[in-house]
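Marked as duplicate of an earlier ticket. Keeping the data here for the record.
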Amino acid sequence: MTTRPTKASLRQTPPKAETTPPTGTATRPTGEPHVTLAVIIGAHGITGEVRLKVFADDLSDYRSFNDGALTLKSARDGSNGVIARFAEITDRNAAEALRGTELTVPRSALPPLEEGEYYHADIIGLSAIASDGEELGQVALIENFGAGDVLEIERPDGRRFMVPMNAQAVPEWDQDRLIVERAFIA
């Protein structure tokens, strides 16, 4: 099972806003899960542009974030993250007020995957079960140190262990759980 570069959030919960965002930017209806593609990390200039920490390969396919509360007009690379302009943000004060705001899209807005591919957002939170049936806990985090994704699984007692996300260690997974080979369990 191979994976292509992550297209969704690497983090389940990005940093919380230091200030309260305007109404409509931080709330979302229950139902379809949303995936965080970026977080606003600060203002850029005086015209309302913001700096983004991006968790996706590319934001160019997305224009509407946070259920339509923010509309992306443009984005470009900057020295400290991506510099973006949103239609609803017109000055530096408004941009600063949104620091820490997550930019989300519905899960259904993400491109379809090939067999054996996955989005981090689909794996985080899954139940982990050993190949012999023992309940191990839940996937808490996914890291990538350069050689491929590594799952961090949290046991019910709070202890964690890591498992490589490859066919030998995780021979199968679906939307409800993933199976971890006993030899890879710490």
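See parent ticket for discussion. The first strand starts at residue 34 and ends at 44.
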